[in-house]
C-alpha cells in the first residue's frame, strides 16, 4: 500500500478541534509514541529519502520501512510496518539486532499522538494531532491507496485538509526538523 | 544469551530415539519449519560468519540474527530471535522490507523438526531431530548460557551428546551444506 500524507504546523489547536467535531471525525485514544530512527550500514538514507525506524506505542513495538517520497504536493511513499514482540526487552533486542547488522541509531522522536478517523466517499482517512517533544503541535491528514487510485486519493487528502482549515503543508519529517534544529543550535 | 550447540548427522534414528527415551527426555510436537536466509547489503556473511534469517514455524514468524561462532568444539554464538506478526502476508512483507533495505535472499531451508527437552543438573537442554529437505536426518544438542557459565555449559552439552551416542559433530550449517551440494552438482 502507499501512504498519502499532508502535514501542517498548528498554531490554533482549538480551532482544528472544532473543525474535526464539525465534520464528525471520531477521536481515538491518545497514544504515547517513541520513534527510534536508524542509519543504513552502506546507504545514506538522507540522500535516498528512506527511513527505518522502530516505533514504540505504549508497550507495543513496530518496525517500519518508509520508501522515498514521490509526489510534490502530498507525501506519497511506500510504507511497510510490522508488529513484533511487545515490551521493553524485545524493543532493546531489536535495537541490538539492528546495530549488530550495522544500522546506526540516529535519534529518537517522542510525541503524544491523538488520532481521529473519518470516512468520506468510501475512503478512510486518519487525522492525527501530534504534540512533538521539542517541536510543538502538528496535524497530519493521511489515507492509504493502491497505485491505481493514487491521484484520486491525493485529491481527497488535499480537499479534506482544506476543509479542516489547514494550509501550507510541510514536507520535512519530525526527525528532519529536530536535526535541523540541532544544527542551527550548534553545540548547544 | 549465548547459544551452545552441537550437531550430528544421524544414520540410525531408531537408536537415538531409544537413547532419548532412556534418559527421560520429553518429546514436543513436530514442527514444520522454513528458514529464509539473507545476505547483508555491504558485508559478506560467509566471511563474517553471521546469519540473518526469517524462520516460519507453521504460521508463526520469527527474525533471527546469529553472530560469529566462537568456540572450537561446540558452536557458541550470539543469537537474537524475535517473533513478529504471524501469517503469510506478514512473512512476505518482512521479506520485502529486508530486500528494500538491500538484504538479498540467499536460499531457504525446509525441515521437519521434532524437539525434545531434557533437564539435568538445573540446566535445560533442547535436543532436536531434524529431517532436512535435500540433506537427511540430523540431531542437535543445545543449551543457552550467560558468558560467566559458558565453559560449564559447553562441557554439559558435550557430555549429553556422548550419553546419547552422538559423535563427530558437524560445524557446517544446513544452509552451508545445501550450498556446498549445489556447488558440487554444478548446473544441476
TrEMBL record, chains A, B:
SUPFAM superfamilies per record: CYTH-like phosphatases
Domain CYTH as annotated: residue spans: 1-180
CDD domains: CYTH-like_AC_IV-like
Pfam families: CYTH (PF01928)
Protein name: CYTH domain protein
Species of the source: Gimesia panareensis
